[in-house]
Amino acid sequence: MAKITLYELSSYNGGCLVPGTFDLEETPTYQDWLSAVSNWLRRLTRELGHLCEEWIVADVEGLPRQFVGEYSLDAAYWDYREALDASYLDEDVFMAAAALDIPANMVEELYQGEFESDREFACSMAEDLGLLQEDAQWPHTCIDWDYAARELMYDYGQSDGHYFRTCY
Fold first, then answer.
1. Longest dimension (CA), the chain
2. Cα dist from 44 to 7, 13, 19, 58, whole Å
3. Percentage of residues in the chain with pLDDT exceeding 90?
4. What distance in Å separates the CA atoms of residue 162 and residue 157, rounded to the nearest whole number?
5. pLDDT at position 70 over 70
């Protein structure tokens, strides 16, 4: 569940914390988000007796930090959520992709899988491409897999064990 807590900025600057917490599952679009924040600020203006028109982000829960600024929530978050809802992949894959700045609409295309290490990823890639014979001892036993993994990683990225092609 994605939540964001804002502080009303004029009160914050005056030393008083006036929070507003928003459940982003209840805001299906960016426009709904802006309306919810505007309604909150109008209500605070009436309650506090001074103009409330700005906010600062105080806390987030369950959404990638890449979408959150000090004073904003990026509209691209809703593209991320839409892609996540339509995908067979788990949310942790999308969070890892966001950490690598991979656009949400490209996650399924670029995702390579989850591996323990770059070396394991390189071995799996070589086997998947049919570059090694399973019954052969040589050259499999002579390959420097750490070097092979370093070379392979020029075109791939990793976040939390999730691997993606990054040369798109």
1. 79
2. 11, 15, 10, 17
3. 72
4. 8
5. yes
The mean per-residue pLDDT over the stretch 69-88 comes to 92
Cα dist from 119 to 79, 124, 142, 152, whole Å: 33, 9, 14, 9
Kindly report, residue by residue over 99-140, the tens digit of the pLDDT: 898 999 999 999 999 999 999 999 899 888 888 776 666 666
d(CA 17, CA 6): 10
- For 117-167, the three-class secondary structure string (H helix, E strand, C coil) is CHHHHHHHHHHHCCCCCCCCCCCHHHCCHHHHHHHHCCCEEEECCEEEECC
d(CA 122, CA 106): 22
Instruction: Cis check for the bond before 28: say yes or no (omega within 30 of 0).
Output: no
